[in-house]
Specification:
- The chain is α/β, with parallel strands linked by helices.
- It has a single domain, classed as Transcription Regulator spoIIAA (2-Layer Sandwich), CATH 3.30.750.24.
- The protein contains 4 helices and 5 strands, in the order ββαβααββα.
- Strands 1-2-3-4-5 form a 5-stranded mixed β-sheet, sandwiched between helices.
- The longest helix has 17 residues.
- The N and C termini lie far apart (34 Å).
- The relative contact order is 0.16.
């Protein structure tokens, strides 16, 4: 698992693993990441289904409940396919932009 920390945001990605293995590693590393906004880069996976993204729902809900952002990045699915409960964007820049907007909303109490 590779971590790229930038300020209060950590981008997480991993090569050469299954999605379930990636999720297991993310759950193990979570205590080190829980105080940061988390961007999960899924570009290393050739195929991703909506059901795969829903595997991240528990950790996403837990993280968002603690007042931090949790964003998945993949361009394998359209925005319309993904449930509203989980944040998914097609590029890393959009993930950073989304986190910036969410931080502003939290600061304003929205």
């Amino acid at each position: 698992m590779i971590f790229d920390k930038d300020g209060t945001t950590t981008i997480v990605f991993q090569e050469n693993t299954t999605l379930s293995g990636f999720l297991e590693n993310l759950n193990k590393a979570y205590p080190k990441l829980k105080h940061d906004n988390i961007v999960v880069n899924l570009f290393s996976f050739d195929k991703i289904a909506v059901s795969d993204l829903l595997e991240f729902l528990d950790i996403s809900n837990q993280h968002r409940a603690s007042g931090q952002s949790f964003v998945l990045v993949t361009d394998k699915l359209s925005y319309d396919e993904v449930p509203e409960e989980i944040s998914v964007v097609p590029t890393l820049q959009e993930a950073k932009d989304l986190i910036e907007m969410e931080e502003i909303e939290r600061d304003l109490g929205i």
